[in-house]
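Hey all, quick one. A colleague (J.T.) asked me to put the protoporphyrin IX containing FE job into the tracker so the inputs and the structure tokens live in one place instead of scattered across chat threads. No bug as far as I know, just bookkeeping. Sequence used:
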Amino acid sequence: MSTEVSPPKFPFSRPSAALPPAEFAKLRATNPVSRVELWDGSHPWLVVKHKDVCSVLTDQRLSKQRQRPGFPEMNAGGKAAAKNRPTFVDMDPPDHMRQRSMVASLFTRERAETMRPHIQATADALLERMIAGGCNPPVDLVEQFALPLPSFIIYGILGVPKEDLEYLTKCNATRSNGSSTAAAASNANSELLSYIGKLVDKRMEKPEDDMVSKLVVEQLKPGHIDRLDAIQISFLMLVAGNATLVNMINLGVVTLLEHPQQLADLKANPSLAPAFVEELCRYHTASSFATRRVAKEDIILNGQLIKAGEGIIASNQSANRDEEVFPDPDKFDIHRKRGSEEALGYGWGEHRCVAEGLSRVELEVVFSTLFQRLPNLRLGIPHSEIKYSEPSQDVGIPELPVVWD
Ligand code: HEM
């Protein structure tokens, strides 16, 4: 009989609400590079210290290619998806940057700043509509605001005509909403893909000023990519961050309601929104499983040998609470003194979120507007009844009933 102890099962569970799993703090103190066991019985390495996570995410000896044996997949769906044609999110240099740069310029901070008036107008219009509908019974903030805002913005960038926005937003919600049946989610996925396919064909005939046209004119027509690549890249940009952004909006609202003094500070001074968003993206890590890699050769990480073919999960969620980098890390504090340290909610290194700039501007618009327009916005249910995502999934709030007066 083997006396070997199996490593702990991963993902760990949040103890309650939006609190990160308690195991991370213990491992940071005792075992910063350790084995965990995934759903399929595999034993990748879990890396929990900020400096080690940064080192993993910049190490060229590690790969993001999901077809490589040993790449840690988080569930059976992921394992199946790994067989699809890859987009840049799953590529290594030099292919990664070649494809990423086909769209990256549309999502930079500078570009997003030029879109700020449009994002503001979209947020204002959604709030007006929500307010006009009244809040008796309480209104789901996700349905009325947190979901349509980022959806309308990304669809606009891609080139989806206005009249299709509502339909596509519904498809996307069904696709990513954990409570849809598998069949409904898979149908919605196919509908989205087929919709994008038709959009690519339309832009082949008559390009306009949008992302799909840019891909068609600069890449597809000259033969750098094929039609399937154009569809997959557009699909990636459509779905990659939408659900995460929705969750960050909801988490932001709840976190502010839990910290009334900081909410009062933000209301009195909406220009605190960027500092709030910075702290929000440190405190809550709503995309905590993207930062995975597999070793192409043997490496030593913080004194631990990791062999070629072994998987690595670099926990940006744990790094964001690393007490060596962020003093008093479990305290939410928008007035936190900051130096050169950076939170890792958007990743690090070459795969760092391509749409971070856009995403931050959207969050800044939301949090400099929402409580200005609705100073008495509050939960429409008791705080203890907030519905969070499953404890072992990415932290999120799939629906948020609110009221105001
Ligand atoms: C608050 C919102 C968001 C968070 C927290 C977030 C987080 C992340 C993280 C952690 C990564 C790094 C993955 C890695 O290292 O492998 C990433 C990459 C990526 N994100 Fe985001 N993201 C957000 C919003 C968005 C949005 C709105 C979009 C699309 C419009 C998007 C598109 C992508 C893409 C395409 C990548 C892959 C980049 C690459 O591999 O080069 N994200 N994101």
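Adding what we noticed when we looked at it: Strands lie at 33-35, 45-47, 62-63, 139-140, 292-295, 299-301, 304-306, 311-314, 378-379, 401-403. Residues 57, 64, 88-89, 100, 154, 236-237, 240-241, 244-245, 248, 286-287, 290-291, 316, 345-347, 351-355, 358-359 surround protoporphyrin IX containing FE (CB under 6 Å).
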